[in-house]
Amino acid sequence: MSASSAEAGTRIEVVLVKAGRTKLRYPASVVSDDGTRLTVHAPWAAKGTRDFGFVRFEPGDVFTEHYWRDRWYAVKEVRDTDAALKGWYCDITRPAVVQGGEVISEDLDLDLWVSADGATVLRLDEDEFSESGLAERDPEAAARAVAALDELELLAKLGQFTALID
C-alpha cells in the first residue's frame, strides 16, 4: 500500500483524531480508492450501544465510510445487522491522509445526520465546535468546516446527498 492509495480488499486502520489526540482506532477493509476518495467497510467500533436519540449505533452495525483527500468531511453510511439503511453520519474533518496502512481523519467537532429516508437532516455539535476555539486558532480551517457542513446540509435538503457516494 502506497502513501497515495490503498488497494481494494486490503486491511487499513482508521484513525480518528480530535484535538491532537487519537480518539478512536479501528480496522477496516478497503472497498475502493481512486486517489481522491477512499471507501472502507468497518463494523461499529465502539463498545456497546450509543443512543443519539435520533439513531442508535449498536454492535452488528456496519459502516461504509467515505474519506476524501480534498474535502473537509467524511460520510459514513450506517446499516443494521439485517443490512437495512439507518442513515448517514457525516463528520466534518480536515481532508483525510492515507499513509502507512492508515487513514487519518481529524475531527473538527461538527457533524450532520441524514436519515435513511432523507426526511431528517440534523446539524450536530455546533456548541462543541464553538467551544473548541478553532475559529480563534485557525480561522481558515473553521471557515472551511462551516462551509463543509453547509454544503452537506444543502445537498441533503435538495435530495442530492447520495450523489456524493454513488
Automatic annotation (TrEMBL):
<dbReference type="Pfam" id="PF04167">
    <property type="entry name" value="DUF402"/>
</dbReference>
<protein>
    <recommendedName>
        <fullName>DUF402 domain-containing protein</fullName>
    </recommendedName>
</protein>
<dbReference type="InterPro" id="IPR050212">
    <property type="entry name" value="Ntdp-like"/>
</dbReference>
<keyword id="KW-0378">Hydrolase</keyword>
<dbReference type="InterPro" id="IPR035930">
    <property type="entry name" value="FomD-like_sf"/>
</dbReference>
<feature type="domain" description="DUF402">
    <location>
        <begin position="44"/>
        <end position="152"/>
    </location>
</feature>
<dbReference type="InterPro" id="IPR007295">
    <property type="entry name" value="DUF402"/>
</dbReference>
